[in-house]
Design goal:
Elements lengths: L2 H12 L10 E7 L4 H15 L5 E7 L4 H13 L4 E5 L3 H13 L4 E4 L10 E5 L1 H15 L4 E7 L5 H15 L4 E8 L4 H14 L3 E6 L2 H14 L6 E6 L7 H6 L5 E4 L4 H12 L7 E4 L3 E3 L3 H41 L4 H80 L6 H24 L1 H7 L5 E6 H10 L2 H6 L3 E6 L5 E4 L1 H17 L6 E9 L4 E8 L30 H11 L3 E7 L3 E9 L7 E2 L37 E5 L3 H11 L4 E5 L2 H11 L3 E5 L7 H10 L8 E5 L4 H9 L4 E4 L4 H25 L12 H15 L8 H8 L3 H12 L3 H17 L6 H7 L5 H12 L3 H7 L6
Parallel strand pairs: 1-2, 1-3, 3-4, 4-5, 5-11, 6-7, 6-8, 8-9, 9-10, 13-20, 14-16, 21-22, 21-23, 23-24, 24-25
Antiparallel strand pairs: 10-12, 13-15, 16-17, 17-19, 18-19
Helix pairs in contact: 1-12, 2-10, 3-4, 5-6, 7-8, 11-12, 12-13, 15-17, 17-18, 20-21, 25-26
Protein name: histidine kinase
Keywords: Coiled coil, Membrane, Phosphoprotein, Transcription, Transcription regulation, Transmembrane, Transmembrane helix
InterPro entries: CheY-like_superfamily, HATPase_C_sf, HATPase_dom, His_kinase_dom, HisK_dim/P_dom, HisK_dim/P_sf, Homeodomain-like_sf, HTH_AraC
């Protein structure tokens, strides 16, 4: 290269002007707060926002809850003439004068969290403490159902947050006259102050049901005091802050230490954003009020998840920023090298190229960081929208359930009220009239109870479901529940043991609630315990802790470690999903246990089994209500035909739920008074349903499958004879005993009724006692017929001649089962589909004819067929097991021995001739 070219390049490099840099701002910050967790969260928010602005010099001074020290710090920052002064005072009064002085000297002043007593400041950033107090008051009234005494633990007197929160809380309570503010404790924002003062106040006000603390640390201290006094179970505690992290508000709510906390945003990020808008002379708001919301058990998991996501994103962002700083450091070193080697043209050119490359890389990284910041902002907005949508959805559902319940309660009340008045009035009523009125009252109250059950799940969700307890023997109660599972344990060869430490343990409990808890735990244990496994239920009384612990232990597959933190959450199914699992059973059991003032915990080791522990108080909690008179502790009667481990707790509306022990009767009668008379006579001995015409009677008979039917001959539309013909011609109802009532007494008319299919033909007027005894005789005859069918179908070739409808049905059923006997997955649903009926109708029909369930009948046919195949020469036990649809030879051997009391191998040896 020519000399002129070298000098031209040298002059070009020497003449390069440095790129203009962004102005540097100096922000001084003095803070004085007693809540370390809140202070750390506020500083974390500030540092996060400052990480986007490297041109800001941020000087933070901590006054350590000393107002005099904070005044000296603010004077020093004013003396240094910082570009902007940021103040977070502990008390409003001492800092007002200095804030005004800085403002008058032209230094922008941003007040954070607590306002000063003057309006001479540039901007304010903080929460609406008045709204925080109102929200806490309304939520407290909701928890107490509008009645009770509350206690308030305030912050430092004179501080604006304490004053505003107290004012808002009182305003909210004024709208709920039944909720009274019993006392106040000046906590001064310090847990130690609460620990010192609160015990005496609680002793002076024993009726206190709820405590509202102005921050979460004081709320935690209130819980510790209540626990020390032994009253933590009847107290509900509300805090303020809603911070994440160990020991803070979100964890306290998740662990049930406090019922709720109100989100009080620290405002660190918004304070820095506002300060930069002021310094850059951009538009800004003077009052930046941050919102609040209630965080309780219904949304704490969502809040924690969102917080964790934000923390992960922040960590990713910090990693990118560290990378950016590293690149900037490299760029600075390279730039320094360029200046040092500027005299050498060749070195300057090389280093200039490197600097250009580094600058390009920095711009790329900066664009990447800006994109991530925009994505974080968009996600934050999306989270806020989702939270608002969830809140609106919850409110809409609550309004729906409430309005629906009220719509049903109003007419029921209008029915029940006059009936109660008539029964209580001194007016003479005949015994029949009083009987009828009592019948109306009883059925109206039953319908009212069904309406109340509609809101059971919602009441659990909002904490309004009451526990109606009766003192009883918990050992006997649990044993009765276990009896339901004995048959399943025997079928699957599961060792099922009950080990109570004492033969009798008395305590107050609600049988309806605990029945659902233990049934779900046992169902879960049977679901995940293999055939031949072990399930042990133990019960241990801890007198020192005043509790009783019931443990359900199995040696099944256990719970995966990844699923264990979420296994008690609603609708969570985990990786070991079951086709019949809804994800509700364990969550419902946990919720009902908490409602019963107990705890549900578990221990699990994958591959070795799981143990669930239910801990209940021995002493009756104050929140328990006495059960109504006549209430029993009998567990639910379960349908033993269904596989117990796969069933959920049977609800009243479940068509597969078991019938009551008493038989059922259907009365088809168009005359209202006669129909009422028949109901009155039969109801003490039957569960009675009625129909006023033949068409309705046929429909009810097919849907409900009653045990007996009483039908009038003269009916509108369809006559009683036509009803009888239809009932006996339909295999679903052909087995039901039918009694015809009529005034037609001619012999040929009686013959006509019998020919139509009536089992009994009664002439009006008839003797009610004779009718009742005739129905009982018909039911006994049906039991004998059922036994006849069972003996007829228990032979080696279970085939029945299709002479009657019931025999035809059993023949078709047997043919379908025998045609698929080698299929291990042969199910009741598949058989019902082949017959063109529902599962419930098939089960009721087989139960009525044979007295056993469909699965038991299938098992009997399998074993009968297996016995025939074992007698064939050359057959093996394994081949016979698979040919008859058993899943394994071991299960086949267990079932064969259970029926014939010998193993398949022994049976085959007994019937094989000895070779000579």
């Amino acid at each position: 290269m020519a000399a002129g070219g070298w000098w031209a390049m040298l002059l070009l490099v020497a003449g390069c002007q440095p790129v203009a840099k962004e102005a540097v701002y100096r922000i001084g910050f003095s803070q004085c707060t007693t809540n370390d967790a809140w202070r750390k969260a506020m500083l974390a928010g500030m540092q996060k926002e400052l990480s986007f602005h490297p041109n800001v010099e941020f000087q933070m001074l901590d006054a350590h809850n000393n107002s005099d020290l904070q005044r000296r710090q603010v004077r020093e920052l004013i003396r240094q003439r910082v570009d902007l002064l940021l103040i977070s005072p502990n008390q409003s009064g001492p800092l007002t004068e200095l804030a005004e002085a800085a403002y008058n000297q032209g230094i922008p002043v941003v007040i954070l969290d607590r306002r000063t007593t003057s309006r001479l400041y540039t901007a304010y950033v903080g929460g609406n403490n008045l709204e925080v107090g109102r929200t806490a008051g309304h939520y407290a009234a909701q928890l107490l159902q509008g009645r009770g005494q509350v206690l308030e633990i305030t912050g430092t007197p004179g501080s604006s947050p304490a004053t505003d929160r107290d004012k808002g809380f009182r305003q909210a309570l004024a709208a709920h006259p039944g909720v009274q503010l019993a006392a106040q404790v000046e906590g001064n924002w310090l847990p130690g102050s609460v620990m010192e003062q609160l015990p005496a106040v609680l002793r002076a006000h024993p009726e206190t049901k709820l405590i509202f603390a102005h921050n979460d640390p004081m709320a935690r201290a209130a819980y510790q005091v209540a626990r020390r006094l032994g009253i933590e179970r009847r107290l509900r505690i509300i805090g303020v802050d809603g911070l994440a992290g160990p020991g803070n508000g979100l964890q306290l709510v998740e662990e049930g230490i406090i019922q709720a906390t109100l989100l009080y945003q620290t405002g660190g990020e918004e304070a820095i954003r506002t300060a930069l808008r002021i310094l850059r002379h951009e538009p800004f708001l003077k009052d930046n009020v941050l919102g609040t919301m209630v965080i309780d058990s219904s949304n704490v998991t969502t809040m924690r998840t969102q917080t964790e996501q934000l923390v992960d994103q922040q960590q990713d962002l910090e990693g990118q920023q560290r990378h950016l700083r590293e690149q900037q450091r490299r760029y600075a070193n390279q730039e320094l090298t360029v200046y040092l080697l500027l005299a050498s043209l060749l070195g300057a050119v090389v280093l200039g190229a490197l600097a250009w490359r580094s600058s390009r890389l920095n711009r790329r990284i900066r664009r990447m960081v800006e994109g991530q910041n925009a994505e974080i902002s968009a996600q934050r907005n999306q989270i806020a929208e989702l939270a608002e949508e969830a809140r609106r959805s919850s409110e809409a559902k609550l309004r729906f359930f409430t309005n629906f319940s009220h719509e049903l309660r109003t007419p029921l009340t209008l029915i029940l009220g006059p009936v109660e008045d008539m029964l209580a009035s001194p007016t003479d009523l005949s015994p029949a009239q009083r009987h009828d009125l009592a019948l109306v009252r009883r059925n109206t109250q039953r319908l009212m109870q069904l309406v109340n059950q509609l809101l059971a799940f919602r009441k659990i969700d909002v904490g309004k479901m009451a526990v109606r307890a009766v003192e009883g023997n918990l050992v006997e109660f649990v044993r009765e529940i276990m009896d339901v599972f004995e048959k399943t344990a025997q079928k699957r060869n599961i060792t099922f043991r009950f080990l109570p430490a004492q033969p009798v343990i008395f305590l107050w409990f609600d049988g309806d609630i605990l029945d659902k808890v233990f049934f779900n735990l046992l169902s879960n244990a049977f679901k995940y315990t293999p055939d031949g496994g072990r399930i042990v239920v133990s019960m241990q009384q801890d007198v020192a802790a005043d509790t009783v612990r019931i443990s359900v232990e199995d040696n099944g597959q256990g719970i995966a470690e990844a699923d264990q933190p979420h296994i008690l959450e609603w609708f969570y199914q985990g990786r070991q999903q079951s086709a019949n699992s809804s994800g509700l059973g364990l969550a419902l059991a946990e919720g009902l246990t908490r409602l019963h003032q107990g705890t549900l915990s578990f221990r699990s080791q994958p591959g070795h089994g799981t143990t669930f522990d239910v801990t209940l108080p021995l002493t009756k909690p104050a929140t328990f209500l006495d059960a109504p008179a006549g209430h029993t502790l009998t567990p639910l009667t379960l349908d033993t035909e269904e596989e117990v481990p796969l069933a959920a707790v049977a609800s009243p509306a479940d068509p597969a739920a078991p019938p009551a022990p008493e038989p059922t009767a259907l009365i088809i009668e168009d005359h209202d008074e006669l129909r009422g008379f028949l109901v009155q006579k039969l109801q003490p001995h039957f569960r009675v349903s009625t129909a006023a015409d033949g068409a309705t009677g046929l429909r009810l008979a097919a849907e409900t499958i009653p045990d007996v039917i009483v039908c009038d001959v003269n009916l509108p539309e369809l006559s009683g004879l036509e009803v009888a013909t239809a009932l006996k011609g339909d295999w679903r109802t052909s087995h039901i005993p039918l009694v015809l009532l009529t005034a037609r007494s001619a012999p040929e008319q009686q013959v006509e009724g019998v020919q139509a299919g009536a089992d009994l033909y009664l002439i009006k007027p008839f003797n009610p006692t004779f009718l009742l005894e005739s129905l009982r005789t018909l039911l006994r005859n049906r039991d004998q017929q059922r036994e006849h069918f069972r003996r007829q179908l228990s032979g080696a070739t279970p085939t029945v001649a299709p002479q009657r409808v019931d025999q035809k049905f059993l023949a078709d059923l047997t043919a379908i089962i025998e045609g698929r006997l080698d299929q291990p997955d042969l199910s009741v649903d598949g058989i019902a589909h082949s017959l063109g009926v529902s599962r419930t109708q098939l089960y009721r029909k087989v139960k009525a004819l044979l007295g056993i369930g469909v699965n038991e009948y299938i098992q009997g046919l399998r074993l009968t067929k297996a016995r025939q195949l074992l007698l064939q020469e050359g057959s093996t036990v394994a081949e016979v097991a698979y040919q008859t649809g058993f899943s394994s030879p071991s299960y086949f051997s267990t079932a064969f021995r259970g029926k014939y009391e010998v193993s398949p191998t022994e049976f085959k040896a007994m019937h094989t001739p000895m070779r000579t």
